[in-house]
Amino acid sequence: MTMRPSLRDEMLAAVPKLRAFAISISGNVDRADDLVQETLLRAMANINLFQPGTNMVAWLFTILRNLFRSEYRKRRREVEDADGSYANSLKSQPEQESRVEFEEFRNALAKLPPDQREALILVGASGFSYEEAASICECAVGTIKSRVNRARNRLCELLKIESAEDFGPDHATRAILTTGGQN
What we know:
Blueprint lengths: L4 H22 L2 H17 L10 H20 L9 H5 L7 H15 L2 H12 L4 H8 L3 H19 L11 H12 L1
């Protein structure tokens, strides 16, 4: 079956979002790229199942998510550097504060239960509505809202965020900026 150019263009436009989602759920760039490639191959092979007029990106995300979960079930018994000590020995420590903060965020995100992390990434980072995320995850909208809320609250706990002032510059930098602005 020949694919219409408009469908191909929609698929290609979704690749950056698919890749970001795949990286966030797999935690590995190479594995994420493989997941995206396999997602696109499956989508092309089953393009006749796509209903024109529906959300192509959501359809692709659903394929990717199902593919990841299938692979996860297969690999569940494998043990690869369970404590991360080997992986940590291969990377250098971040030199800039923003890298340290990002690493802290990434570690906190990894501590969330998979369903909460997935919901938060779909709604918060990928820009899907609660309804679209619920469709992708094959659950109720209220379930997605609950998962996102619990994920955000848990991230705040893990990152020790108590208020909006905890974002942005630290207290010393904020004081310098405030003093500098008054002169």
